[in-house]
Amino acid sequence: MKVKAFSIHGFLFFLCLSVTLAVSAQTAASFIDIQKAMPRPADAWKRKEDTLQKQFAAKGLDWPAKFVYIRSFKYDSQLEVWVKSTAKEQYKLFKTYRVCALAGTLGPKRMEGDYQVPEGFYYINEFNPRSTYHLSLGLNYPNASDRILSDSYRPGGDIYIHGSCVTVGCIPVTDEQIEELYIITAQAQSQGQDFIPVHIFPIRYSNKRGVEYLARLTKTDGSLKTFAERLESVYDHFELTHQLPVIMTNTQGDYVFANLSKKVPPPPPVKRVPVPHRTRTIANLPDAVHKWPQFPGGGNSFLEYLDKMGNALATSLPEGKKKAYITVEFIVDADGTPTNFKVLKGVNEDFDDEVITVLEQMPAWHPALLNEKPVAKLIRQVFAVE
């Protein structure tokens, strides 16, 4: 499959190590030693390590596992642990755990406070030995796709696999089970598996009841249906090969795959639906004023604001375009409200419409003054999107 462009965040999925996993720069022994120096992990190791070794041996698996893959199914309330000893061999199933509780419903997490368990492709980026929920393994939500498709200001965070059997949007298991998961993944991380993948699916796609439920749920929601189908393609690939494809994110936030055993159609193009914009009828618009409008904090604050807006809009640039200079015109009305935005020089109709939508969130200004009275004033401004 040919892929034209990917977000830089998609590549960072594979190239960057989270700060919370900085411990991997240490030796394998020192990481395990640090974990065993903590009261809860130390107690877990004493009670669980010998049992885990015997369980691995009973299934013909090498202890400790050098590679671990976790996948969870929301509808089925299950979490699987797959392991292997070398990169080239196939993953083998070690154990399936029961997920204690589920918050929200099927579908991805898209904003803070929606109580949704995320769906998609993640990795462990934190080992928390002092968790409120006994022990916990942090996931890198929001990932590159979530940062594009979720609420840009409040996507949410702090998603964990944890103990205590309670949840408001995480994946809870029992304390006994999280101890096993913690030890297995810590051993793999200590041996160099910096990115321990955790894939969260809405359903187990071989479960007829789950498939029927998902079909009813997505019957009138085309975008959710497409999203679930793309997750299914990775599920199918793993079921066939017991290996993982390379997963990346394009500039629209869609997951794209390399070395996939089953051809996946590209996501359908989504045309942005223009939204009504703020306009006012302004009768008096003087060419000259005694005092120009002032952005809260002054001119430098306005330039900083434009830089932030330019960065936020960069993910919406057309494929292959990394930078654009945008010329906008708007009026700061006599009450300080910025209104009547126009893009004089932009990129295309959809992008320019989004520029206006974003800029309309601009805070109120201090209005222009003419003879000590506030008046409306036209402003033109150029800023970069990159």
Tell me about this structure.
By secondary structure, the protein is of the alpha+beta class. It has two domains: 251 residues, L,D-transpeptidase catalytic domain-like (Beta Barrel), CATH 2.40.440.10; 87 residues, Fusion Protein Consisting Of Minor Coat Protein, Glycine Rich Linker, Tola, And A His Tag, Chain: A, Domain 2. The protein is built from nine helices and 15 strands. It has an eight-stranded mixed sheet, with helices on both faces. A three-stranded antiparallel sheet has the order 12-11-15, covered by helices on one side. A two-stranded antiparallel ribbon has the order 9-10. The chain is elongated, with a radius of gyration of 26 Å. The two termini are 27 Å apart. The N terminus is likely disordered.
**Global morphology:** elongated
Mean pLDDT: 86
Uncertain segments: 1-28
Q: Could you tell me the radius of gyration in angstroms?
A: 26 Å
Annotated CATH homologous superfamily of the largest domain: L,D-transpeptidase catalytic domain-like
- Sheet with most strands: 8 strands, mixed
In total, the number of domains comes to 2
Mind telling me the CATH class of the largest domain?
Mainly Beta
Spatial sequence of strands, sheet with the most strands: 3-2-1-8-4-5-6-7
End-to-end separation in angstroms reads 27 Å
Percent of sequence in beta strands: 15-25%
Q: Percent helix among the residues? A: 25-40%
Q: Under CATH, the topology of the largest domain is which?
A: L,D-transpeptidase catalytic domain-like
Number of strands: 15
Secondary-structure element order, as H and E? HHHEEEEEHEEHEHHEEHEEHEEE
- Which structural class matches the secondary elements? alpha+beta
CATH architecture of the largest domain: Beta Barrel
How large is the count of helical segments? 9
